[in-house]
Design goal:
38% of the residues are buried. Strands 1, 2, 3, 4, 5, 6, 7 and 8 form an 8-stranded mixed β-sheet that branches. Helix 6 packs across helix 7 (169-179). This protein starts with 5 loop residues before the first helix and ends in a 13-residue tail after the last helix. Helices cover 35% and strands 26% of the residues. The chain has helices spanning 6-19, 34-39, 64-68, 86-103, 136-139, 158-167, 169-179; strands at residues 25-28, 44-48, 57-62, 73-81, 110-112, 123-129, 140-143, 146-157. A hairpin with an 8-residue loop joins strand 2 (44-48) and strand 3. The protein is globular and about 45 Å long.
Length: 192
């Protein structure tokens, strides 16, 4: 990774640590292999434990912006989960590679996981949404030379993705609100 991009990765990490003050935060360098590492050279996954802001775990990418920014703008991603698990670190690395490797995720996009979010879960896709659980203070991340948006990767079912294709993103989010889903529950029922 070029020396110019390292400060951006460090700034994302500082932003996440400041937002989650009082929470344990560990920076994990996921094993991407040499070819994938070249696509997201400085990738770290920040693993945030439960604390004063939330009783769940958060997994946040740091490195997508540095690999993909255009005119100082770019994205990072956050996922919330019920436990600490290497599976979620690996999934965040997959999201980063998918995004930086040519798919370019953005708000209201989705991506298939290719398997259940966790074994036995009906959720096998991720929906890119606003980080409602954490709000705009996490979402808006100032960086040297730009700004990153940290967007939420919400595990959803194939049926929910199909519903969104026909009825729209807001209609799906309305169903989530009406059903009162617990986004960290891997065994939640589909809302459609």
């Amino acid at each position: 990774m070029s020396d110019a991009r390292l400060p951006a990765v460090e700034a994302v990490e500082s932003h996440v640590r400041a937002f989650f003050e009082g929470h344990p935060v560990e920076a994990v360098v996921p094993d991407l292999g040499p070819e994938r590492r070249g696509v997201v050279p400085g990738l770290r996954v920040l693993v945030v434990g439960p604390g004063p802001r939330s009783d769940t775990w958060a997994y946040v990418t740091a490195g997508c912006w540095a690999a993909m920014e255009k005119d100082g703008r770019g994205l990072e991603f956050v996922m919330t989960a019920h436990v600490r698990d290497q599976r979620f670190v690996d999934l965040m690395a997959m999201i980063a590679f998918y995004h930086c490797g040519g798919q370019q995720l953005d708000l209201e996009h989705s991506m298939p996981i290719g398997e259940p979010w966790v074994p036995g879960s009906a959720c096998d896709h991720l929906l890119i949404s606003l980080p409602y659980q954490h709000g705009p203070d996490l979402e808006h991340c100032p960086l040297p030379g730009g700004h990153a948006r940290i967007l939420w990767t919400l595990p959803v079912t194939a049926a929910e993705i199909e519903f969104r294709r026909h009825r729209g993103h807001e209609a799906l989010e309305q169903l989530f609100d009406e059903a009162g889903i617990i986004p960290t529950d891997p065994f939640r029922a589909s809302v459609v």
